[in-house]
Amino acid sequence: MTATAAPRRPLTTGLARALTLARRPVVLLAAGTLLVLCILVVAPLAGLVSTTLMEGNRGAWGDVFTSRMSRNLLWRPLGNSVLMGAATAVLSTLIGGFLAWVVVMTRVPGRGVIAVLATIPFALPSFALALAWDSIFRNDLIGGSTGILGNLGIMVPDWIAWGPVPVALTLTAHYFSLSFMLIAAALAAVNGDLTEAAEMTGASRFAVARDIALPVVAPAVMSGALLAFAEGVSNFVSPALLGLPVRFHTLSTRLYGAISTGDVSRGYVLSLVLIVVSAMIMLTASRVTGGRRGFETITGKGGRRRAVTLGPWAWPVSGLAWAVVIATTIIPGLVLVASSLTRRTNDFASGVTLHYWIGGSDPSLAQGQRGILANPQILHATWNTVLLGVCVAVGAGVLGLLISYVITRSRGPKPLLGAMSLLSYVPFLIPGIAFGAAFIAQFGAPIGPLPSLYGTFAILVLAGIAATIPFAVRSSTAALSQVSRDVEESAVMVGAGLMLRLRAIIAPLAARGLLTGGVLVFVQMVRDLSLVVLLATPAMPVLAVLTYQYSSENFTQLANAVTVVIAVISVGATLLARRAEGAAQPWNETP
């Protein structure tokens, strides 16, 4: 009996340990959050792939990659996407790096205001800058009304009004803020004592910059450039507004056109291509910035930044910095507001009116469309937009807190924690418009007893939570890092359970950081068009999609007015987040 029972003891012991481990609350929490991640992330991607492999849809792969139409369907749009990404990366790095250097390393007048203005474009909807460009530079190439310059009698060349140049410039004006914030933070970490000591040994300023400052800043420069590259590749709205009228296609506009016209299978294949391209770029960014050796810039000794003396160049440099932030922040806002008040599109000589804001139906204006503040559809869309932002912020915040707690505070099974960490990062690799296509593929038709979610508010919320999980997890992790483990360990010693600790200790103590992360998620949802452009319907409108539709139908005043509303909500929430964060930025310190 002993000889036959002995071999079973290890198995029995292992099974008992597994059952004991499975009963632990933190393991149950990890398993539950992993299941939610699978539903929100894995299932839509699997649905996207499986739909293209179904009978009758498999031919879409050949159509996209090897058919006669593949040049116009894939390869030319892919080349245009890469071109826009490269132009955005280079220009954003140059502009963002220059402003970061001015704000952090010099003493030009008003550098604190420059810093604030340089961060605002990223809080604005990307289509705000595209609409402002269209309002100024639009010419009569495609018919319809012309822009402000055209109405003043100034001829605008086609290459400035339409195509790759305006697309690249508006993308740069939006995404240079990314590079600015990353490079400014890196420059603030450069210890002035080190550079001064190097100069005292006889090193030239060029050598100091090359051997001390550049290695510290290089990871931030590369990270900002690659992030801008990825955003430029996947952006939908700027190519749609400024490129589509002259048939300048990118991958994002191609897949939107395919899906919106019913060519779903080819659109899904293009979505997968866009996901792969964006994922490769983002993983490269992660490898480049994560694989570089570290440079210790924060020590136990106090350090100071050394300001560069510009001498006679101070005013020209200051003027150029002010020109950049005025051109990318103040002028677009003024143009959008002013053009929404013109009686005829972009024509100030036609008179000023508040009709497009508060007017009733008038057949002589905008085909009878009411002003946005008197239009039930706009008011409905505003409510949907704000409610969507709040629901996604709360949902992503709770899920992000649970995920970050399990990953950083628990001692659960390593495979389980690794899977959670990976899945919480995956949405960061997926462009918004491709994510929207994935949710249509998975939830656009009934699944067993579950009805189709397409056209409902639920699919917007689920897609929003899935897309913003990486932001929520990162902000929750940062908030948890400020809560000492000793506090929680004391609660464990008096018998407090996991959920009680989360509710009574973790959440209140991390509330400030969680609020900041929630506001940032809210802003992301309010201003984002790419994610919702395929999911919103006339019965379930949101402001960003209505703006795109108004612009496409040449209702410029209405489109610009709605954009102003979105910008006010986004910038207001961003300023609230900065105030809630309560920490001074490094460039606001006195050298």
Question: What does it look like?
Answer:
This protein has a two-stranded antiparallel sheet with strand order 1-2. α5 packs across α14. The C terminus is likely disordered. The protein has 26 helices and two strands. The chain starts with a helix and ends in a 10-residue tail after the last helix. With 591 residues, the chain is an all-alpha fold.
> How many strands, which pairing sense, and closed or not: the largest β-sheet?
2 strands, antiparallel
Please list the strands of the largest sheet in the order they lie side by side.
1-2
Assembly annotation: single chain
Arithmetic mean pLDDT: 82
> What is the count of helical runs?
26
Tags for this model:
26 helices, 591 residues, mainly alpha, 71% helix, 2 strands, globular, two-stranded antiparallel sheet, disordered C terminus
Task: Annotate the secondary structure layout.
Blueprint: H1 2-5, H2 8-22, H3 25-52, H4 59-65, H5 70-105, H6 111-123, H7 126-137, H8 148-151, H9 158-161, H10 164-188, H11 192-200, H12 205-234, H13 237-242, H14 251-260, H15 264-291, H16 314-339, E1 342-344, E2 347-352, H17 355-358, H18 376-409, H19 414-425, H20 432-443, H21 457-480, H22 485-493, H23 498-509, H24 511-527, H25 543-552, H26 556-581
Antiparallel strand pairs: 1-2
Summarize, please.
By secondary structure, the protein is an all-alpha fold. It has 26 helices and two strands. α3 packs across α20, α10 (164-188) crosses α12 and α15 packs across α20.
